[in-house]
Each structure stands twice: as structure tokens, then as C-alpha cells.
Specification:
Helix content: over 70%
Shape: globular
Radius of gyration: 21 Å
CATH topology of the largest domain: Growth Hormone, Chain: A
Length: 462
């Protein structure tokens, strides 16, 4: 129960921050580029630390890393709630993202170690449900918090929940650490500790942060600015070093051989593209509904249920369809459905939009994500050898989060370019419509890629 309670906070604070953005920009006097980092810094830290914190949990103990992650999330959340300037807020959000990564990986490991057989399946089913509920109801809950208190409550309330989790953690025997046992076990863990791929972790995280910097600051500084040019060069250099290190290190953070598995790669592409469509709209659509359509924060959160409820309601249907349809049909079809929804949003969104005009587009976008929620994870793990399952899960989730983070930054850059750095009025409308078109094109390319990779996998298997 403690792990599930902690897991509720992490998606809630992603989607909830979107409702807080208008208040943050007004209260702290932040420009568009700075306010985008409220979400981007959290996501980038989450994606960058996800795999390495899983390794730390194996070496230093699941419960210890879980508690440390929750503590970081608590400190980051409370600092965010009381931040007096946007730089401190964005730094604190990065700390929260790192803490969420540690608690997520260690928490999943705790569940796997605590339960077996059918009980393990039920535990992870509940985990998926909690994550879906946090994503679905985050904007609505946060909207009511903003209306009743202020944007600061969006960060303070999840931090308070983290504080409760910290109080519950030490006394719960159902949260076993892996550390302990006989001398042989300790020696094995010591050997594994020497094998943690710190260089791979750094070489993965830095290019991701630099790419987000380029997308966020490029529209402000200009893409020919020396800082942007240097960042591009650094990404190319660090990327080449990352590949070289991961091929040579004895215990790499990522098994790059999995990228050569077309079936696994197709599922990773689909998962990343679906979140890359859903999450940017979860972040920027609330600001549009508040600042342009004229809704209150709470009402904007309620409207977003049209987008998020399919994510909660449809995974069971998706699992049933996965047993009856070829996987490529379900996976590519789901990406295409979300793409059609994004295209429809570009056509229907406007200052006078009501729930009726937005219903079809938002439901279609949410349906694509909902039908594959959990299903894609299972397909990806089953597409590799049993001994690769843990590595594949880490790479799959990191690919999904990294794609989501990059898409979020890209949509923010597009909005900045279309609106001149201010999310207001007709320029905001044009920017959101352009974002819908761009996301629909992204979905079309991703669906085509999934189909091509599925054909390649079929030919490879004879």
C-alpha cells in the first residue's frame, strides 16, 4: 500500500503542474522559456535517473533507495511550494524528478520481491491503475487546489503525501531491502556496485538535458546563437561517446543489442509516440483553456477528463484486443487513432471551443494511449529473452520517458515560435493548432515505423 501511495504522486505532479503554469508565470514573472522548465526539468531528471536508480536499488537496498527517493521528492516538492523565483522552482522540480525516479524503480522492485505468482500480477495491476488514476485526475485535482488555495498547493500536497509515505516506510516489513544476508550476498553486491555504469548514466542524461535546452531556449536566443551551436556539437560528441562506452563496459546501463531487435524497438517507438502526443497536450491545453477560453483552473481540469479518462477505462479492453488481434494492428492502430485525434484538435480548437467541439478529438487521443497502457509493456518484455527482461524493462521505460520529454520540449518550442513567447490570444490559438498538426504528423511517422519494424521482425523470423 505504501508503494502504491507513493506512485500516485508522480504522475499527479506532472499533469498537475500544467494547471499551475498560468499562476506561476503571473506570480513569479516568468517568461515562457523559464516556465517550460517547471515541467521539463522534472521529466528530464525522471528519465535521466530512471535506470541508474534501479541499479542503485540492487546494490544499496530497495527500501533504502525507495526511502531516499521519496525524501528527495518531499524536499523538492516543499521547496517548489515556497519558491520565490522561477530558477529555484525549476531546480527543485529537477530534484523532485530524480526522487520520483528512485522511488519508482525501487518501488517496482519491492513489489516484485514481495509478491509471487498471481499476487504479483494483481499488485502490478493495482500499480498500473494507480498510475493511470494519477494521470487522469491530476489536472482536475490540481485545478481545484489552484482555485481553492493557489498554484503552490499543487506542489505542497504531493509533498505532504510523500512525507506520510516516509513515516510509513521504516516500520513496514512488506518493504524488504535487498541488502543483507550472508557474506556471499554482500560480496556479490559489492561486485555489482563496481559494475554500476556511471559513465553511461552521465553520457545519457547530459545530451537529453542539452536537447531540451536547445528546444526551450532556441526560440528565445535564436538557433544560431553560439550557446545553441555548442550544445548541438556537445550532443553529437556525447552521443558518440555514449555508444562507445556502452559497447565496451562490462555491465552497461543499456544493452544496445536490444535496439537491434525490431519487435522490441517497434513497441518502444509506439510507447514513446503515444506519450509524446498525450503529455504535451496535458501540459499546455490547461493553460489554453484558462487563458484563452476563459475557464477557471478547476473547470479546465474537469474538461481534461475527456482526454484522460480513456487512459483509466480502456486498458482492460486493450488487453482483451491484444489476445485477438495481431500486435501490429493494435499497436500501429492505437498510434494512428491518437494521431487522428491530434489532427481533429488542430481543426476544432478555438477561443469559443466547448466540450462538444473538443470531445471527439480528446477522446481519440486518450483512446490510443488507453488501449495500449500496460499492454505495450508486456509485449516489449515478451519480445526478448527471459534473461534480458529486467534490462529490457529499463530501456523501454527510459525510451518512453525520454521521447515524452523531448516531445514536450518540442511542442513548447513550437508554441514559443508561434506566440512570440507569450501564451495569449490568437497567437496561442495558432500555436496550439500548429502543435496539433505537428503531433498528428509525428503519429503518422511513428505508425509507419511500427509497421515497418513489424515486417522486418516477421521476415527475420522466417
Amino acid at each position: 500500500m505504501t508503494v502504491l501511495l507513493s506512485s500516485l504522486m508522480f504522475p499527479l505532479t506532472i499533469t498537475g503542474a500544467s494547471v499551475a503554469l498560468p499562476g506561476i508565470t503571473g506570480d513569479l514573472g516568468a517568461g515562457l522559456a523559464a516556465s517550460q522548465w517547471v515541467v521539463n526539468s522534472y521529466n528530464a531528471a525522471f528519465a535521466g535517473f530512471l535506470v541508474i536508480t534501479g541499479a542503485l536499488a540492487d546494490v544499496h537496498g530497495r527500501r533504502r533507495v525507495f526511502a531516499g527517493g521519496v525524501a528527495l521528492f518531499f524536499v523538492g516538492g516543499m521547496t517548489s511550494a515556497f519558491a520565490g523565483d522561477v530558477l529555484l522552482l525549476n531546480t527543485a522540480r529537477g530534484v523532485s524528478g530524480a526522487g520520483a525516479a528512485a522511488a519508482t524503480t525501487a518501488g517496482a522492485s519491492i513489489l516484485a520481491a514481495t509478491f509471487e505468482g498471481a499476487a504479483r500480477g494483481r499488485a502490478f495491476g493495482l500499480l498500473g491503475t494507480v498510475l493511470g488514476v494519477g494521470t487522469a485526475f491530476g489536472p482536475m485535482v490540481s485545478g481545484f487546489l489552484v482555485d481553492a488555495l493557489s498554484w503552490r498547493a499543487v506542489f505542497a500536497v504531493p509533498a505532504a503525501v510523500a512525507g506520510l509515505v516516509l513515516l510509513l516506510t521504516p516500520g513496514l516489513p512488506v518493504l524488504p531491502g535487498k541488502r543483507g544476508g550472508g557474506q556471499g550476498q554482500g560480496q556479490a553486491q559489492k561486485r555489482r556496485g563496481h559494475g554500476i555504469d556511471w559513465s553511461g548514466a552521465v553520457l545519457f542524461a547530459l545530451p537529453l538535458v542539452l536537447l531540451i535546452f536547445i528546444l526551450g531556449e532556441g526560440p528565445v536566443l535564436g538557433f544560431t546563437h553560439p550557446g545553441i551551436v555548442l550544445a548541438v556539437a556537445a550532443i553529437a560528441t556525447l552521443g558518440a561517446l555514449f555508444v562507445r562506452v556502452e559497447r565496451r563496459v562490462s555491465e552497461p546501463m543499456f544493452d544496445l543489442g536490444l535496439v537491434a531487435n525490431p519487435r522490441f524497438l517497434s513497441y518502444a517507438v509506439a510507447a514513446g509516440s503515444l506519450m509524446g502526443i498525450l503529455v504535451p497536450l496535458l501540459v499546455y491545453l490547461p493553460s489554453y483553456l484558462i487563458d484563452v477560453v476563459g475557464l477557471g483552473a478547476g473547470r479546465a481540469g474537469v474538461w481534461l477528463l475527456m482526454l484522460t479518462m480513456p487512459v483509466v477505462l480502456l486498458p482492460t479492453l486493450g488487453a482483451a484486443l491484444a489476445k485477438r488481434l495481431p500486435s501490429v494492428v493494435l499497436v500501429a492502430g492505437s498510434v494512428a487513432v491518437s494521431g487522428v485525434g491530434a489532427l481533429l484538435l488542430a481543426v476544432t480548437l478555438g477561443p469559443d471551443s466547448g466540450p462538444g467541439e473538443l470531445l471527439a478529438s480528446l477522446v481519440l487521443i486518450g483512446t490510443g494511449a488507453g488501449l495500449t497502457m500496460g499492454v505495450l509493456d508486456g509485449l516489449a518484455i515478451s519480445s526478448v529473452r527471459a534473461e534480458q527482461a529486467g534490462t529490457a524493462a529499463g530501456l523501454f521505460n527510459t525510451a518512453r520517458l525520454a521521447t515524452e520529454t523531448i516531445a514536450l520540449a518540442a511542442v513548447g518550442a513550437l508554441l514559443a515560435a508561434c506566440s512570440g513567447g507569450e501564451l495569449k490570444g490568437a497567437e496561442f490559438t495558432e500555436g496550439m493548432r500548429a502543435a496539433g498538426l505537428a503531433l498528428s504528423g509525428f503519429a503518422a511517422v511513428a505508425a509507419a515505423g511500427v509497421i515497418a519494424l513489424a515486417r522486418k521482425a516477421r521476415h527475420a523470423n522466417g
